[in-house]
Design brief:
This protein is of the alpha/beta class. It has one domain: TIM Barrel. 40% of the residues lie in helices and 14% in strands. It has a five-stranded parallel beta sheet, covered by helices on one side. Helix 4 runs parallel beside helix 6 and helix 6 packs parallel to helix 8. The relative contact order is 0.12.
Length: 200
């Protein structure tokens, strides 16, 4: 895959995703793997660490970006306000900023997103298990996106992120998408458009 990425001039290569036990217990393996990838791919590298894993990774200095899958539990309010979520982000952002400055590496969100359901900014991995029983709530999703961008957009150490998720094709499964992570066709899409069309 590294060779393919190099041949296509891919902008960024991720060496792995949420392999928590392996990355903590086998750092030598990961350092060797990264060196091997560098011999085949000439672009920047990251690793996608889960939100509760990234501080324990020991090989960030071998990569170009600290990658975080940013599914932090921020609020169990049914429809949290933007302000409430901004405040909840502060302690996490402070840790990221300090860590980034210490390692002299910027960070990015290798994944970020929210389901369009009640309490979407809570423990997302638990919400997923009971998706069909949850009340759709586009405003909660939109507020969560808005708060994330307000907190991180002007932070020099943050280099953006990748929305989870966006479907390449339209689907007839409207019942699924109604509560899914995708912002497509929902209020949150306007928030993404607003920020992503800003001139740097």
């Amino acid at each position: 895959m590294a060779q393919v990425a190099d041949s296509l001039d891919v902008d960024l290569f991720c060496v792995g995703t949420e392999l928590k036990i392996s990355t903590i217990k086998r750092p030598a393996y990961w350092n060797n793997l990264i060196e091997e990838i560098k011999s085949k791919y000439d672009g920047p590298l990251t690793y996608a660490a889960n939100w509760d894993e990234w501080e324990h990774i020991t090989f960030w200095s071998s990569l170009d970006y600290i990658g975080i899958d940013a599914y932090y539990p921020l609020s169990n309010t049914t429809t949290p306000t933007v302000r409430e979520l901004e405040q909840a982000w502060q302690k996490h952002k402070e840790k990221m900023d300090i860590f980034s400055r210490r390692l002299k590496r910027p960070y990015l969100f290798t994944e970020f997103g929210y389901m369009s359901v009640d309490k979407c900014a809570d423990r997302t991995w638990e919400l997923e298990k009971k998706r069909s029983d949850l009340n759709p709530n586009q405003q909660a999703q939109a507020n969560a996106y808005e708060a994330l961008f307000k907190v991180f957009w002007n932070e020099p150490s943050w280099r953006g992120g990748f929305v989870w998720k966006w479907y390449p094709y339209e689907s007839n499964r409207s019942d699924y998408r109604e509560r899914d992570y995708t912002p497509q066709g929902k209020i949150a899409a306007k928030t993404l458009y607003h920020y992503y069309t800003q001139t740097p």
